[in-house]
Amino acid sequence: MMKKSFKKMGMLALAAGMTLTLAACGNDKKDADASAKKTVTVSVDKGYKDYINDVKGKFEKDNKVKVVVKTHDALSTLDNLKLDGPAGKAPDVMMAPFDRVGVLGKQGQLATVKLPSGRYNQKDKDLVTLKGKQYGQPAVIETLVMYYNKDLVSEAPKTFKDLEAMSKDPKYAYENDKTKNVAFLTQWTNFYNAYGVIKAYDGYIFGKNNTDPKDIGLNNQGGVEGITYMTDWFKNVWPKGMQSTTSNENFITDQFTKGKSAVIIDGPWMAAQYKKSKINFGVASIPTLPNGKEYQAFGGGKAWVVSNYSKNKSMSQKFAAYLANDNNQQKFYKATQEVPANENARAEVIKNKDDQLTQAVVEQFKSADPMPNLPEMAEVWTGAENLMVNSASGKQTPKQAADKAVKQIKESIQQKYKD
After folding, report:
1. Spatial CA neighbour of 136 closest among 153, 154, 111
2. pLDDT tens across 29-55, in order?
3. How far, in Å, CA of 234 to CA of 185, rounded?
4. Which of 192, 320, 352, 394 maximizes the CB count within 10 A of its CB?
């Protein structure tokens, strides 16, 4: 009887202990959740840290929340989201390139956001929209522009006919092969650069304004015509090294910064390097192509996005919208010199007529083709990787090279995407 009583008491004590322990665990979880809801964690590249710290104070005060800023490579943060999110290690707010926004949104890793009216034009909205849902607050716009050496040319060339004429001038003959010319250079073996010509000749990536991945138009009649035009430069004007897929980028930069080349096409991210070289350069929109159409380069950039795993999703969405408001977008531009996606802020920054880079990006973006944000775009990059190399080298005709690229893209899409 005594033993039974002790046993019963022991079991009651154990049950009580377990109840207290579970209650404590429950309270710990509630405390942790409550703490999380008072904090918004932002992860950015180190170049954006000062900007976040500069603007977060007002948001913290107005919303009674703490904004914690962490620095980490942006692409790595996005790559790790699938594992870090469920583990509770992911940040609440991040920055993502536009072509990653749709992919991550479709995978369920990003929360939807509401775009305030009056901030963005339709092109800006399209860059973060997938099947009618927005997954990011547009922050930055980017596209290719033309750089020119002011000591070699008096004004920015207006047409590719001008560039063709310059490329016959012996003063721009390549020093290691005088039969070749380096007056104008660009990395057309990079599909990102080449697409602007293909699109201008009526080729396209996906049908129905880049919403139908079953319709690939890189090898249509117009697309092949654009590829043929670029191939002519490789075969008849440029040194053979321009057919490389990697080293030609360094070659182009070297020729331009040493004053050998007068004109190049590249991205706004190259401006800082050109400034360091002390070259006297100007920036303008890209010349009109021989068919009379504008060079329709990719329109891209970056957006503020919110993790779908966030424990403080509504406040994080609010902070992302705050970062992209008119005033903060102007501050972002002053801090980084990156062109705002916010239309109102963009209108303010282009009032500085002396900033040729910003003027050129904004002007070129008007004719830019929004980069597709469908997940299938990953297969396009892979399939089109050697498109221009195969044509430029003469291993294949422009038509054969385009057909091969499209065949590879379609097969990859069919294998990986069933819906």
Report:
1. 111
2. 555 555 556 899 999 999 999 999 999
3. 10
4. 320
Instruction: Transcribe 97-127 into DSSP letters.
Output: EHHHHHHHHHTT-B----PPTTS--HHHHHT
Just give the CATH number of 145-296+376-416: 3.40.190.10
For the CA atoms of 50, 51, 52, 58, what is the dihedral angle to 10 degrees?
110
SS3 171: helix
Distance between CA atoms of 223 and 165, rounded to whole angstroms?
Answer: 24
User: Which of 18-32, 197-211, 306-320 comes out lowest in average pLDDT?
Assistant: 18-32
Note whether 110 and 91 are within 8 A (CB): no
Which residue from 203, 231, 197 is spatially nearest to 216, judged by alpha carbons? 203
Residue ranges of the chain assigned to CATH 3.40.190.10: 52-142+300-365, 145-296+376-416
Look at residues 415, 311, 358, 360 and name the one whose alpha carbon lies nearest to residue 146.
360
**Sole residue written with tokens 């802020």:** 345
Contact 291, 200 (CB under 8 A): yes
Which residue, among 100, 97, 110, 39, has the nearest Cα to 70 in the 3D structure? 39
Enter the tokens of residue 409.
Answer: 């893209």
- Residue 335: other Cβ atoms inside 10 A: 15
Task: Given CATH 3.40.190.10, say whether it is the number of domain 52-142+300-365.
Answer: yes
**Cα separation, 34 vs 2, whole angstroms:** 47
Task: Please tell me which residue, 21 or 76, carries the higher pLDDT value.
Answer: 76
DSSP string covering 263-296: EEEE-GGGHHHHHHTT--EEEEPPPBPTTS----
Chain Cα centroid distance, residue 358:
17
Q: Is the pLDDT of residue 3 over 60?
A: no
- Residues 317 and 194: their CA atoms lie apart, in Å, by 36
Give how far Cα 70 sits from Cα of 41, 94, 131, 177, Å: 7, 10, 32, 51
Please tell me the predicted confidence (pLDDT) of residue 39: 95
DSSP-based helix, strand, coil % in the chain, nearest 5: 50, 20, 30
Residues across the chain: 419
* DSSP one-letter string for 34-47: HHHTTEEEEEE-GG
**Regarding beta strands 281-284 and 263-266, do their DSSP bridges make them parallel or antiparallel, or are they unpaired?**
unpaired
What is the pTM assigned to this prediction? Answer: 0.86
